[in-house]
């Protein structure tokens, strides 16, 4: 319980709005979720340190409640240049179709990590989370000294152990159901092949056997009853991205929001097509045509396809966009974020009450 209190004083309800890089997790959404009793998050991924700082200032102007900022870890420069070149050649037709040049795959692999650390240590925020790897103990100790709680995204018990040993305050356990990028420490098809990840409830149970730090559950959660299941399995809160993506406060593209419940996009898959890392999205033309040929090269492919994705959105063509979505996307509700938090809390209470009644009935029988 002492361990859990390291996080539970950050929110009224055990509901964390996932940091969704690419614009969805804007200050308005994060502030609304925090004001409603959850924990809102900004996504610093793909932003400059200056842009990150400006969003933090905007968020602080909207709420005095706790919030978090998510950082991407620097990536090793081990991509196969020949494979990246071959994929670039494959995308020349896309560039011609959308009338936009392909991006430079060598535009950088550290996402300005050190500069963002400096900003966040000079201007501490309540929570900082990390994706695509684990920070050093020195970094996590520095945040602890600054009064910032730290969370590391993990997809296996071994990754969770690494995060605990490094000094993380909590781990965000991400099941294979999750939308967007899988937060694996490595990007090796031989280790983390498509679909090789564990489902959320199994992963929570396994991670609990390995670590003592609090667990935040992420992956396909769309209803309060699912939050209750995650808490019963051992989590202290649930992190939800797809559920909040369709809210009016979300900064996601309107085409992305509409696709969540469009019968044309009936299922999700993991793909490297857009970024070179496994990420779950709605299956569309781009994913079908290019996914089988995409190499494990992140962020090289992200930089290469960034312009294509923006051009597709500008052209009103969701078939060329990265429509990140979790497996529960058809359960998305187009509600104001505060109303969604309220409904999730009511559903959570109802599920807990029903579980209590079932336990009582079992004891009587």
Automatic annotation (TrEMBL):
Catalyses: 3 propionate 3-nitronate + 3 O2 + H2O = 3 3-oxopropanoate + 2 nitrate + nitrite + H2O2 + 3 H(+)
Q: Which Pfam families match?
A: NMO
Q: Which cofactor does it need?
A: FMN
Entry keyword set: Detoxification, Dioxygenase, Flavoprotein, FMN, Monooxygenase, Nucleotide-binding, Oxidoreductase
Any one GO MF annotation of this record: nucleotide binding
- Family from the record: Belongs to the nitronate monooxygenase family. NMO class I subfamily.
Describe its function: Nitronate monooxygenase that uses molecular oxygen to catalyze the oxidative denitrification of alkyl nitronates. Acts on propionate 3-nitronate (P3N), the presumed physiological substrate. Probably functions in the detoxification of P3N, a metabolic poison produced by plants and fungi as a defense mechanism.
Protein name as catalogued: Probable nitronate monooxygenase
The species is Streptomyces violaceusniger (strain Tu 4113)
Q: What is the lineage of its organism?
A: Bacteria, Bacillati, Actinomycetota, Actinomycetes, Kitasatosporales
